[in-house]
Amino acid sequence: MLLVCRFAVPAPQAPAFAARARRALELLGAAPGCRGGEAGRAVDDPERWVLTVRFDSVDAYRRALSPFPVREHVVPLLSEALADEPSAYETLLTGVDGLVVERESLLTEDRTGTLGDGAPRRAHLGGG
Predict the structure, then answer these.
(1) Would you give the distance in Å from CA 40 to the centre of its chain?
(2) Disulfide check for 104: which of 1, 3, 43, 116 has CB 3.0–4.6 Å away?
(3) CATH class of the 2-89 domain in this structure
(4) Contact status, residue 56 vs residue 33, Cβ threshold 8 Å
(5) For 3, which DSSP code?
(6) How far is CA 125 from CA 17, 91, 100, 119, in A?
(7) CB of 114 within 8 A of CB of 108?
(8) Which of 35, 45, 31, 43 is nearest to 74 (CA)?
């Protein structure tokens, strides 16, 4: 599962935002099932930031949000994200070292249930 939250942060607030994002990454990164995350600023618009965090599953993401320190520090930060697009995505393709791991969608056609077991399938990038 991939969490992608975009933020509009005025320049004077950037240091405070960066500190909050660091704390969010520390707390979420310590959760079982968290694969890591990043926070960054847009090259073309330094007042736009993004926070991305990867989790093993939707359940791992939900469990990561439940401890009190996360509810105290991370949830308020996430609530400030731009709300014009979704923030939680299922990971369907992962590319590493020229190999792509493909996962079956967890969503049914009507987006309500589970399709398959989500087991990875490997495919090779590039020709040949």
Answers:
(1) 13
(2) 116
(3) alpha beta
(4) yes
(5) E
(6) 37, 17, 6, 19
(7) yes
(8) 31
pLDDT in tens, 13-36: 999 999 999 999 999 999 999 999
42-57 per-position pLDDT tens digit = 999 999 999 999 999 8
Q: Is the dihedral of CA 80, 81, 82, 88 positive or negative?
A: negative
H/E stretch holding 19 reads helix 14-29
- Sole residue written with tokens 């939250």: 5
Backbone phi, then psi, for 9, in 5-degree steps?
-125, 110
Q: Enter the tokens of residue 80.
A: 């400030």
Query: Which residue has 């990164």 as its token pair?
Result: 29
- Closest by alpha carbon to 21, among 69, 82, 88, 74? 74
